[in-house]
Amino acid sequence: MTLTLTDELLAFDREHLWHPYTSMTSPTPVRVVTGAQGCELEVDGRWVVDGMSSWWSAIHGYRHPVLDAALAEQAGRFSHVMFGGLTHEPAVELGRRLVAITPAPLERVFLADSGSVAVEVAMKMVLQYQRGRGRAERSRMLTVLGGYHGDTFDCMSVTDPVGGMHTMWQGLLPDQVFGPQPPSYDASAAEIDAWAGELRALAARHAATLAGIIVEPLLQGAGGMHPYPEACLRVFREIADEHGLLLVFDEIATGFGRTGHLFVSELVTPDIVCVGKALTGGYLTLAAVVTTDEVGRGISASESGVLMHGPTFMGNPLACAVASASIDLLLDGDWKARVDTIGARLTAGLAPLREAPGVVDVRTIGAVGVVQLDHEVDVVPATEAALAAGVWLRPFRDLVYAMPPYVADAAAIDRLVAGIGAAVSAG
């Protein structure tokens, strides 16, 4: 039998390429993408709605003419230059936009090259700040259970040590302080108060060694797609202020409108915010850490006198140019109405699944829809069922969820809902 190009690609992939969270010896099936347009991917020769926005990044969909043009225009000038000792217009213009759209005290920008690196940089900022303030003994982070902050070592250390994806590394990671997971988004005032009391007591016990607090604000992502009340953000801020800690919001997943807020940091302002994923509209890897003058002065007063970090591809001109175009595209369009419309349609469409066998919860926040099962999803049949319904999904743990591009119209969302239902039935 003559092998097709797809067969050859899959054969080489299976023998040589490692995919995320996949066994080398017994890899799960992968599918070949041959095209992308709008909110759809061409997978195995058929067009399907991308319910994942390429892991929450492609908010404008694919092959957007504005982003294509920004990329091509910058490539016609220069594609990369080191950021050490040099600067360029794309980086400066992106910095202007980030300062303008984040809360007022946040006006110092560090351009990283991935979300995990941004979190590493933020945590390093926290530690160097405390050293600069003469408090080197403050070297631990306070966070909450249920969180996820990336796959590099410091990031893993503040990811849920029990229910997270990095439990095998316990004992090798920095020792952080974990408080209780925030209550559910529909929690009562009494439940919020009880949680807050426990977290305050924990912070007080460890205050002498704590340097900062890091959380995903309003929505915990890969740790379980868990939305929680806005009131919890104020508790984090109050604890940080009471004990001289820096508050870090990891908005890599929540930023750029996904929760219905441009940034959750608009509700409660942190000392440091990390952004990534949707920053370039899914075109190129780029992240940023935005902080205050006060934090910058504290870092500069540490023994090194400088922030000890500098990625090779920091401030990459191609990525910065596309990021600026993506931000402009977001702000020039009615992103809030789009997100609200998607959210409302997901809420209505997914509601009947509350009665489906094996379903324990259905929840939405912004342009995010989640169905939680009473068992681990069988990913392969669930994925196949969704594809048969015309949708690409990537379930994990006990969750079938979607974060579609903001360009998805009503018909696409209806297909997505049908695909989620198919995956729930099959998984």
TrEMBL record:
InterPro entries: Aminotrans_3, Aminotrans_3_PPA_site, BioA, PyrdxlP-dep_Trfase, PyrdxlP-dep_Trfase_major, PyrdxlP-dep_Trfase_small. It is found in: Cytoplasm. Keywords: Aminotransferase, Biotin biosynthesis, Cytoplasm, Pyridoxal phosphate, S-adenosyl-L-methionine, Transferase. Pyridoxal 5'-phosphate binds at G115, S116, D250, P311, T312. Pathway: Cofactor biosynthesis; biotin biosynthesis; 7,8-diaminononanoate from 8-amino-7-oxononanoate (SAM route): step 1/1. Its cofactor is pyridoxal 5'-phosphate. GO terms for molecular function: adenosylmethionine-8-amino-7-oxononanoate transaminase activity. Its EC number is 2.6.1.62. The record marks Y21 as: Participates in the substrate recognition with KAPA and in a stacking interaction with the adenine ring of SAM. Substrate binds at W55, Y148, K277, G310, R394. PROSITE patterns: AA_TRANSFER_CLASS_3. The modification N6-(pyridoxal phosphate)lysine is found at K277. It comes from the Bacteria. Catalyzes the transfer of the alpha-amino group from S-adenosyl-L-methionine (SAM) to 7-keto-8-aminopelargonic acid (KAPA) to form 7,8-diaminopelargonic acid (DAPA). It is the only aminotransferase known to utilize SAM as an amino donor. PANTHER family: ADENOSYLMETHIONINE-8-AMINO-7-OXONONANOATE AMINOTRANSFERASE. Belongs to the class-III pyridoxal-phosphate-dependent aminotransferase family. BioA subfamily. This is Adenosylmethionine-8-amino-7-oxononanoate aminotransferase. It comes from Nocardioides ginsengisoli.
